[in-house]
Amino acid sequence: MALLKLCSLSFLLSSAVFAADYAPVSSSCPSSSTTLVREASSGLSTEESTWAEARKAIADEALATWLAKQNSAWAEATTLPKLALSSSGGGYRAMLGGAGVIKGFDSRDSNVSTSGLWQALTYHAGLSGGAWLVASVAGNNWPTVSSLVTGLWNDTLDETLLLAEGLDGAIDIVANLKAKEKAGFDTTLTDSWGRLLSYQILYGDDGGVNKTLSGIAEFTEYTSHNAPFPIMTSTGVEVWDGQCSPDALGTQYEFSPLEFGSWDSGVAAFVPTEYLGSSLSNGAPSGSDCVTGYDQLGYMFGTSSSLFNLACIPADVNATEIGTLLYEILIKVHEAATKDLFGVFPNPFYEYTTSSDVSAQDTLYLVDGAESGQNIPLWPLIQPARGIDVIFANDLSADTDYNWPNGTEILQTYTTATAEGLTTMPQIPSVDTFLSEGLNTRPVFFGCNDADVITIIYLPNYNYSYASNVSTLQLEYEATETAALVANGVEIASYGGKADFGPCLACGIMQKSGATLPSECTDCLASYCYN
Ligand SMILES: *[C@@H]1O[C@H](CO)[C@@H](O)[C@H](O)[C@H]1NC(C)=O
Ligand SMILES: *[C@@H]1O[C@H](CO)[C@@H](O)[C@H](O)[C@H]1NC(C)=O
Ligand SMILES: *[C@@H]1O[C@H](CO)[C@@H](O)[C@H](O)[C@H]1NC(C)=O
Ligand SMILES: *[C@@H]1O[C@H](CO)[C@@H](O)[C@H](O)[C@H]1NC(C)=O
Ligand SMILES: *[C@@H]1O[C@H](CO)[C@@H](O)[C@H](O)[C@H]1NC(C)=O
Ligand SMILES: *[C@@H]1O[C@H](CO)[C@@H](O)[C@H](O)[C@H]1NC(C)=O
Ligand SMILES: *[C@@H]1O[C@H](CO)[C@@H](O)[C@H](O)[C@H]1NC(C)=O
Question: Does the beta carbon of 473 lie inside 6 Å of ligand 5?
């Protein structure tokens, strides 16, 4: 506590020094190209496909090592599947439970049946609380979860966002937002939200103010292809048509260190994340200069977890304590306005011909990735361009009255994918089936027996060692609770240490490679595969 008081004092004293770091800046545009935008129909960017290929080679070695531990039959395996992890939303419950799953996969940090699979992932997507997790891990250059607990979360989660109640930290945040306004950009509740969260999620007295999403591409673990490719998601709202919230077919945006955009028709385009905030028309810079720094990391994970639009009108944001606090900050910067309810982005797809749903708009309005009803960020991972074979879907949603998942989030992804003609998603049963067969309480493999779809290894929240169904609204955690939620997450990853889980998981993964399966797999697949 004393340490934190000291930190807040130092925010106050040094505010003048780094307040401006939050503001986007004018920079020269990349010289090589006349257009910064590309069509989604061209597949992955060259940068991403080159990076992912290099990553996959390293991931394959780790997977081979892990497989050999499960069954000697895999020693000869040559064709290995491409793996991804999807970390759901659900506030700090999801961040900490999801962190436990990473720990249970990470051979640097655990010794359970699944340890080593983190090293074998090519992609990691996170949404809302899961985006905080992606940001805390990737944004700090991929330390172990244990070191994040000890070095950061133990202390920062104990104090909560309301640390700023003394408003020492908030003084800095006001200065950050004023600097962004002065640079010519709108600020909203998502700015104050992202800044407050950052003091808990990123290292440094300044809450990682100078970190950007695109800057992650310069970190050593990224350049050495030593970690999975990080992606966060968000949903678009058609504010210009009077919408407060998206519907189930709302445009799903994704942002990575490389690109920002959407695969969905109506947008179907991407722009380099580094140049977000630039004024573009039909993909081309309007002036001689571009903008960098708009992709401030806290703003990006703040956008992925921005729920203020649910209030629909600014005054109603005050209904929650956190809403009131955020407005107290924002109102020092400008008068309340409807745009405050969203993460706002100067529209990079303005007048871009393929982006028919948004090409007439100067601003994009983005909200929490879960608002389309899909709280597990599978959308980026089921895109055929990424060629992913197996996804670990870690579901920490609070669907039921008691804050447990009930299958509805993954089912919505299946329903939407089917409606939009995306055929990579395995069939997902009804919520009634999830509940009656207990599919929401244990690991289940979906899509085993259909070679044309991705296999999803569903890893739902369950109270193996701790009552891990804490409310999404709980924003303050004592060190013991943080540790207990992470420890329970390790059990979620490894099915509570069940003896057959490692070898059976190997069967589920390798079935997708088309390999001949050892005879032990027959019983495994019968017990873990839903279909
Ligand atoms: C991991 O656990 C196994 C089985 O309990 C044990 O044989 C092995 O030595 C452990 N490895 C490490 C690095 O602790
Ligand atoms: C951000 O600030 C920290 C602390 O002042 C500094 O060490 C780091 O190099 C800066 N990073 C960038 C990308 O400017
Ligand atoms: C509530 O929100 C409005 C924004 O509409 C703000 O101007 C006002 O100061 C807030 N009121 C209180 C009591 O916090
Ligand atoms: C499942 O969760 C959804 C989302 O919270 C909820 O609307 C629905 O009522 C739940 N269904 C059942 C049967 O529990
Ligand atoms: C957690 O789940 C148990 C039942 O599984 C329930 O009794 C309890 O009220 C739940 N807690 C919360 C905070 O929802
Ligand atoms: C998990 O929930 C069940 C059912 O509510 C309860 O009986 C059990 O004690 C809980 N276990 C833990 C570790 O909280
Ligand atoms: C963090 O919390 C855990 C659990 O209470 C404890 O074991 C560990 O020593 C703590 N670390 C620090 C640096 O406080």
Answer: no
